[in-house]
Write a structure and sequence with these properties.
The protein is α/β, with parallel strands linked by helices. It folds into two domains: 5-115 and 195-456, Glycosidases (TIM Barrel, Alpha-Beta Barrel), CATH 3.20.20; 477-538, Sandwich (Immunoglobulin-like). It is built from 14 helices and 16 strands. An eight-stranded parallel β-sheet has the order 9-8-7-3-2-1-11-10. It has a five-stranded antiparallel β-sheet with strand order 12-13-14-16-15. The protein is globular, with a radius of gyration of 23 Å. Bound molecules: alpha-D-glucopyranose (GLC). Alpha-D-glucopyranose binds next to loops. The site of alpha-D-glucopyranose has 9 residues, from loops.
Length: 539
């Protein structure tokens, strides 16, 4: 395969300090993107050779989920060394090469930083376990006891299921402490009330920024601080929900000071580095993380998981718009990531799901602000029903929910079965099994079909750039959301541009204007068919 067309020339100048405001970032899940060494797991070498493909989409950058050393209990979100590269993925030399190659292609690189927790194999956690109760080493984490050694300090539940506390040394009379893990027991939470933790992470940030990394996506950004004294949660049954709604577990006021500090660090570089947060809170609370001296952007999380529901899109869109007005930062739109069910499956069964996912992607690429595309979304991949015995997500084992179906290795070529160009010939089986029809959804198959979602994505991004250059689109645009009686959702952006999505059951009449792009052809009467989106230049 060759990817001859490069859009690098039209990327914003690296010096433009506000490039991030309307940036489109492609999320790479390195395990599943491209396997360079044939062990069945994606790696940096595999990503390096496929960078021209990403550039050919016309995106502004890449967010890479963690590739740092890790026992891989939570597929890399259990980091044992924040400043290295896991040999599973390659070497620091290869990362350096990747960074250079990306920059040459006009692509920025965002890394994932995981500051809420580390791996239980992190040397500082190991030292804490060894040092015993009352030690300064343990004060880097949350160790403690309930009223007696047999109960943990409070009633919190882990996001992945079960208690959020693990007894460090079961059976010991002298060390009866438990430690806190909002996720798996192999992911102990840092104690951010200890200033040494903040200093440690400042060094981590500087390490990557010094190397030339352009920005960071901050994992579970709202949960670093827990309520002082770790009181019981009101909603004891669910920390998943509690991370959003239990004031004891997340969104503590103190966390904002962390991002003010990180912003000062990011701004001290030239060009300035960019912070994007996974802030899974309602729009008003999330927007407080993007005040002018904190992060640059936060994912529009309230939007990410919505179903195909015009009223819900309009309500959340309107709330996000109000939050933007209050705090100034445009939202970062997304419909998919490695944690949630692919939109083609989430939005409906069969063809309707696929049509809606295409429409959803075209819609978010037209909304005011930044946008994230998850690898494979441009191929309109569905969620895979991974066989039970092949599932590896720790959430599956502990909580009965599997995120594996959104993480299956990407199909690049129509054949050969199993690897579909993800690995080279003779390689080991992919780390998650690929479905038999994966080749029909591959990059190769999409390139051959002029109506494919891949072509639509490329066209949308090209047009987005042209309209921005002509100042028809501006990152500062507001969005006005409406739903008409027939279920046509619209978001008017600025004076001249409108995104429409037909979410009702009948073809919909579009507002007067020039239709510049649609996800499905208009009907013979010029109406937008159900499950389709359009971009309209208003008259
Ligand atoms: C974030 C990641 C998810 C991970 C969790 C714990 O939500 O996106 O994949 O399991 O944090 O680190």
């Amino acid at each position: 395969m060759t990817f001859t067309e490069s859009h690098s020339a039209s990327h914003p100048e690296p010096q433009s300090p506000l490039w991030w405001q309307d940036a489109v970032i492609y999320q790479v899940y390195p395990r599943s993107f491209g396997d360079g060494d044939g062990d069945g797991v994606g790696d940096l070498a595999g990503l390096l050779t496929r960078l021209p493909y990403i550039a050919s989409l016309g995106v502004d950058g890449i967010w890479m989920t963690p590739f740092q050393p890790s026992p891989q209990v939570d597929q890399g979100y259990d980091v044992s060394d924040y400043c290295g590269v896991d040999p599973l993925f390659g070497t620091m030399g290869q990362f350096d090469q990747l960074l250079d190659a990306a920059h040459t292609l006009g692509l920025r690189i965002f890394l994932d930083v995981v500051p809420n927790h580390c791996s239980s194999e992190h040397p500082l956690f190991q030292a804490a376990v060894a040092a015993g109760p009352g030690s300064p080493e343990r004060a880097m984490f949350h160790f403690g006891n309930g009223p007696d050694g047999d109960t943990p300090p409070n009633n919190w539940q882990s996001v992945f299921g079960g208690s959020a506390w693990h007894r460090v040394n079961p059976g010991s009379d002298t060390d009866t402490e438990w430690y806190l893990h909002l996720f798996s027991p192999q992911q102990p939470d840092w104690n951010w009330r200890n200033p040494a933790v903040g200093d440690y992470f400042e060094d981590v940030l500087r390490f990557w920024f010094d190397m030339g990394v352009d920005g960071l996506r901050i994992d579970v950004a709202h949960a670093l601080f827990k309520a002082d004294g770790l009181p019981d949660a009101a909603n004891a049954n669910s920390v998943v929900d509690g991370l959003r709604s239990n004031p004891q577990v997340s969104d503590q006021e103190e966390v904002h000071e962390v991002y003010r500090r990180w912003r000062r660090v990011a701004d001290s570089y030239s060009p300035g580095r960019v912070l994007v947060g996974e802030v899974n809170l309602d729009p008003r609370r999330a927007a407080r993380y993007t005040r002018h001296d904190e992060m640059h952007q936060a994912f529009a999380f309230a939007f990410v998981k919505l179903g195909w529901d015009a009223d819900a899109w309009a309500a959340v869109g309107t709330e996000l718009e109000a939050a933007r007005r209050e705090h100034g930062a445009p939202p970062s739109w997304a419909l998919e990531n490695h944690d949630i069910v692919r939109s083609a499956t989430r939005f409906g069964r069969g063809d309707r799901g696929f049509l809606r996912a295409r429409a959803g992607l075209l819609a978010i690429l037209g909304l005011p602000g930044g946008a994230f595309i998850y690898q494979g979304q441009e191929l309109n991949l569905p969620e895979v029903d991974v066989p039970l015995d092949a599932r590896v997500d720790p959430m599956w084992a502990r909580g009965g929910v599997s995120r594996d179906g959104a993480r299956v290795p990407l199909p690049w070529t129509v054949t050969p079965a199993n690897t579909f160009g993800f690995s080279s010939d003779g390689a080991a089986e992919p780390w998650l099994p690929t479905p038999a029809d994966w080749g029909t959804r591959s990059v190769e198959a999409n390139l051959q079909d002029e109506n494919s979602t891949l072509h639509l994505t490329i066209e949308a991004l090209k047009l987005r750039k042209q309209l921005t250059e002509k100042e028809i689109l501006s990152p500062g645009d507001g969005g006005t959301w409406r739903v008409d009686d027939g279920g046509l959702l619209t978001c008017q952006r600025g004076e001249q541009f409108l995104v429409a999505v037909a979410m009702g059951d009948e073809p919909a009449r579009l507002p007067d204007g020039q239709v510049v792009l649609t996800s499905s052809p208009l009907t013979a009467e010029g109406l937008l068919p159900p499950d389709a989106a359009a971009w309209v230049l208003l008259r």
